Amino acid sequence: MEQELISKKDLLKKMDISYGQLYRWKRKNLIPEEWFVKKSVSTGQETFFPKTEILERITKIIELKDQKSLDELADIFSDTFEEEVPELIKSHSSDHQVLMIYQNIVGKPLEGSELMDFLMAKLIQDYVLSGKITLDEGKLIYEFLELNFHHLNIPNAWLILIRYLGQSLVLGTLDKESLILSESTNCILEVNLVQELQHLRLASMN
Amino acid sequence: MKSLKIFGDGTVSGGEFDKVNVFGGGIIISKVQAIKIKIFGDAVFEGEVIADEVKIHGSVTFKKAVDIKKVKVYGDATFQEHAQIEAIKIRGNARFEDLAQIEKLDNFGECEIRNQVKCQELKNFGELNVIGKLKVETLNSTGWLETEGEIEGESITIKGGIKNMHLINAEEMTLVLYADCYCDSIGATKLTVRQKGKDNRWLNDWKEECFLNVKEIEGDQLELAYTKAEVVRGDVVTIGEGSIIERVEFKKSLNIAEDSQVYDQIKR
Predict the structure, then answer these.
(1) Which residue of B lies nearest to A10 if distances are taken between CA atoms?
(2) Chain A 27-46, CB below 8 Å of chain B: which residues?
(3) Which candidate among A27, A65, A128, B124 keeps its CA 20 to 30 Å from the CA of B143?
């Protein structure tokens, strides 16, 4: 599965930022190093970024940069979440429907001592409740995460739900680009767990 | 409290001490916690070392992690594992084989960092060689600085020579060319490159003009002289004398000195 890329030049133009800002954010770890992809082009080498991720990240940085210091922002965008569990307990979704479905899928109420519990609640809210995936598929995802969450809790890893010949199947990949699916495969859901967790963290701050 | 002194050759176990002095050859086989450590001969610390002050006149190898407030190296020191140091002055040789986290590093001798170093304030008057990444708040180098990985810093001033195989990423960087310098790429908010000044006349006579050779420079305010670059991209760009640039992409303004050559210029 190929990732859509955006060149540095186009990125700066589109977001109206300068080289200095981009390098500063890189230095402060607001933009992960893995996102800087060097590629050969006709005029030499150019740097590219994964398009959706970088646009989302920079929009967020620009939105928050006047309220928060760069170090605070670095914490928001960091890839480790273990310390956030107490914060999340205070602010997690108390949507009745989400809690019901959570109990249905997981088999117990949302108590939330683990990071994964909140992630699951978010996936239910975003994808099951909206009808994008079915309840049974939600269960599949939960079963998969229960075993593999710790493998996929890294920046480049994705969780993918496909439907093939009417069957649903959950896959995990450590690197989306190295996954090749046949064209007839219906890719229902692509979730980057670290990004989802970052969304959770942002939501818990507001 | 007790102190440990080794005059001849001795192998001893560690412990808590006020002072540790090694005059001959000493092997300390377990963890040492001390206020002051002085090495005049040869010493090997096989366990962790936690100390307030360490002075090395001879030669010493730390085989495990160290956490030291003040280190002075007049002889040779090798840190084989993680080094956490508040302030280190190197007049002899120091070699860090693992990560080093140092608040203040002054290098007058030779220093080699085989992995990464994170440093608040780094002054280099001698030769500093970093195989991995160098992350600093402020860097002042008048000696020779060589890095294979990235250099990241808020304020970087180099009045000497530099060779960097990766990227220098700085908020503000000044490079005064006392030797031919090589960088793969530089990204900075503000970058100034100029020839060594008239203030150091005898050095001036000693060598002809020096150049910065670089593939790519990107920044907001760029003031370059004696720079040979493939591509320069910036907002406000001044190409001073002695430069040869294949392509300049600029946003707001571009000034080119008469004796400089820019083959291709594009306004974005």
Answers:
(1) B268
(2) 27, 43-45
(3) A27
